[in-house]
TrEMBL record:
<keyword id="KW-1133">Transmembrane helix</keyword>
<keyword id="KW-0812">Transmembrane</keyword>
<protein>
    <recommendedName>
        <fullName>Sodium/potassium-transporting ATPase subunit beta</fullName>
    </recommendedName>
</protein>
<dbReference type="GO" id="GO:0036376">
    <property type="term" value="P:sodium ion export across plasma membrane"/>
</dbReference>
<comment type="subunit">
    <text>The sodium/potassium-transporting ATPase is composed of a catalytic alpha subunit, an auxiliary non-catalytic beta subunit and an additional regulatory subunit.</text>
</comment>
<keyword id="KW-0739">Sodium transport</keyword>
<dbReference type="InterPro" id="IPR000402">
    <property type="entry name" value="Na/K_ATPase_sub_beta"/>
</dbReference>
<keyword id="KW-0740">Sodium/potassium transport</keyword>
<dbReference type="GO" id="GO:1990573">
    <property type="term" value="P:potassium ion import across plasma membrane"/>
</dbReference>
<dbReference type="Pfam" id="PF00287">
    <property type="entry name" value="Na_K-ATPase"/>
</dbReference>
<dbReference type="GO" id="GO:0006883">
    <property type="term" value="P:intracellular sodium ion homeostasis"/>
</dbReference>
<keyword id="KW-0472">Membrane</keyword>
<comment type="function">
    <text>This is the non-catalytic component of the active enzyme, which catalyzes the hydrolysis of ATP coupled with the exchange of Na(+) and K(+) ions across the plasma membrane. The beta subunit regulates, through assembly of alpha/beta heterodimers, the number of sodium pumps transported to the plasma membrane.</text>
</comment>
<dbReference type="GO" id="GO:0030007">
    <property type="term" value="P:intracellular potassium ion homeostasis"/>
</dbReference>
<dbReference type="GO" id="GO:0001671">
    <property type="term" value="F:ATPase activator activity"/>
</dbReference>
<keyword id="KW-1003">Cell membrane</keyword>
<keyword id="KW-0630">Potassium</keyword>
Length: 301
């Protein structure tokens, strides 16, 4: 008897047909509860939207608000490959064609035909020069012109004469760039104290020097000559600062081309490249902050 009574008890709690109560409440009571939660969540959503809008009012459309928290620029390269490895056979086109295709696509941005409009581009010279100041980070002067960067500056790594960027000859090229940071002005090294001895000759005014060398000491005699192409063998200051996509929509980063002319075949070789400057740091947790390393394995058998 008690089981039946209890059974009837919870059934009546769910729905009492005698009183018309659902879960112990009448229909009018449920309307009040529903109305309360609708108003409550509406006010909560309004507070959230208002907070976001208030925060957006503190942000500048052109100047990053928290730029002091931005890490120094990354150093990246084309072609990029899985795990930072470049493995190929010079006589087997299929082994390097995807890498070459990626480089051609990247370099097409620097075609002369894309840099003819003098309203968008200007000639900033083929020698390192000081920063190109184009005004403040606001819209009062409109969009900014960008410095031209002719592909011809990259010599045999430009892809104009050698469409395979040296891969078919076993002398691969890498195209290196510093990642963009709005209003960042890289500063050249003040002295040679922080620069390896074999790279100190590269220090010159108005250039952020780039230097590559063996990652492992046992590979010191296996890397061979590395040739540098570009402006001053590094990143010239006249291409800085960058004003952002809205003010600098046609901006082209300066490039440095590396050609590895005599890598030892049939062995894994790891190369590390770094840029040097007063406001460029490195982070062991970020393999691309101010540096990168890449592993080559050129096969000939």
């Amino acid at each position: 008897m008690s089981a039946n009574k209890d059974d009837g008890g919870w059934k009546k709690f769910l729905w009492n047909s005698d009183t018309g109560e659902l879960l112990g409440r009448t229909g009018g009571s449920w309307i009040k509860v529903t109305l309360f939660y609708v108003v409550f969540f509406f006010c909560l959503g309004g507070i959230f939207v208002g907070t976001i809008q208030a925060m957006l009012l503190t942000l500048d459309d052109f100047r990053p608000t928290w730029q002091d928290r931005v890490a120094p620029p990354g150093l990246t390269h084309s072609p990029q490959s899985d795990k930072g490895e470049v493995n190929f056979h010079p006589k087997e086109m299929d082994s390097f064609q995807p890498l070459v295709k990626a480089m051609r696509k990247f370099m097409s941005l620097y075609d002369d035909s894309n840099q003819q409009d003098n309203m968008k581009f200007e000639d900033c010279g083929a020698e390192p020069a000081d920063y190109k100041d184009r005004g403040d980070l606001d819209s009062s002067t409109g969009t900014k012109r960008a410095c031209k960067f002719p592909r011809e500056l990259l010599g045999p790594c430009s892809g104009l004469e050698d469409r395979d960027f040296g891969f078919s000859q076993g002398k691969p090229c890498l195209i290196v760039k510093l990642n963009r940071i709005v209003n960042f002005r890289p500063r050249p090294p003040a002295n040679n104290d922080s620069i390896p001895e074999d790279a100190q000759w590269k220090v010159q005014p108005n250039v952020i020097p780039l230097h590559c060398t063996h990652k492992k000491e046992e590979d010191a005699d296996k890397i061979g000559e590395i040739k540098y192409y570009g402006i001053g063998g590094g990143f010239p200051l006249q291409y800085y600062p960058y004003y952002g996509k809205r003010l600098h929509p046609h901006y082209l980063q300066p490039l440095v081309a590396l050609q590895f002319t005599n890598l030892t075949r049939n062995t894994e070789l790891r190369v590390e490249c770094k840029v040097y400057g007063q406001n460029i740091d490195y982070n062991e947790k970020d393999r691309y902050q101010g540096r990168f390393d890449i592993k080559f394995n050129i096969q000939d058998s």
